[in-house]
Design a protein that fits this description.
alpha+beta; Arc Repressor Mutant, subunit A; 2 domains; three-stranded mixed β-sheet; 16% strand
């Protein structure tokens, strides 16, 4: 029994250290990949050393609740997109009232919609194009479409993005040192918004 308690303490310390190293957030998936039993998470919650904020997502009591990480953990096929992606990339000052995630066309979004999420579905072949890892406002890594894919997405008629948001996003983008105009042009042809992208670039570049 003494040896067992020692193992629990060691594993608990490892979990807490992993949370500290990840801006105060830890997931049960990561624990399992590290070879630690998930039961240790419950022990830490019972002791008040961790808080469960959603299924499989835990934070240190002192950590800020990262809604984006929590949603991504629960809806693994979702990729932050449209106005939410603009916000993550600092291409807009407007904080999104509702997070937007894009899913494969065959994905059942009923559970996500219950969370007041705006759900976009695209053909599976297009879903993974332009996906990168970026930091949420809480500094956790989340999946989001890159800037070029996002600019194309907000130009689609069905996106219903405010024209002022679109204009501001393109103005900010062309000032970026890491902008990739050839990639933006490639995506614009792929997503059938080539003319609209060219209209913005002709004025701003």
């Amino acid at each position: 029994m003494q040896e067992s308690e020692g193992i629990i303490t060691t594993n608990s310390e490892k979990i807490l250290q992993m949370a500290l190293d990840n801006n105060g957030t830890i997931t049960s998936e990561r624990i399992s990949k590290s070879g630690i039993l998930r039961s240790h998470l419950k022990n830490l919650v019972d002791k008040g050393l961790l808080e469960r904020i959603s299924r499989g997502v835990y934070i240190l009591p002192s950590a800020m609740d990262d809604d984006m990480l929590s949603l991504q953990t629960r809806f693994k096929r979702g990729v932050f997109s449209h106005e939410t992606a603009l916000f993550i990339h600092d291409l807009t000052d407007r904080t999104p009232f509702t997070f937007t995630l894009t899913f494969p066309l065959t994905y059942n979004t009923s559970s996500a919609k219950k969370e007041n999420l705006r759900c976009i579905r695209v053909k599976t072949a297009y879903h993974s194009i332009g996906v990168i890892l970026a930091k949420s406002p809480c500094k956790n890594l989340i999946r989001v479409y890159n800037q070029e894919r996002t600019l194309c997405d907000i130009l689609k008629t069905r996106s219903n993005t405010d024209i002022q948001i679109i204009t501001d996003a393109f103005k900010r983008y062309v000032r970026l040192p890491q902008k990739n105009i050839p990639l933006l042009s490639h995506y614009s042809r792929m997503f059938h918004v080539e003319k609209r992208v060219r209209n913005y670039l002709d004025v701003l570049l």
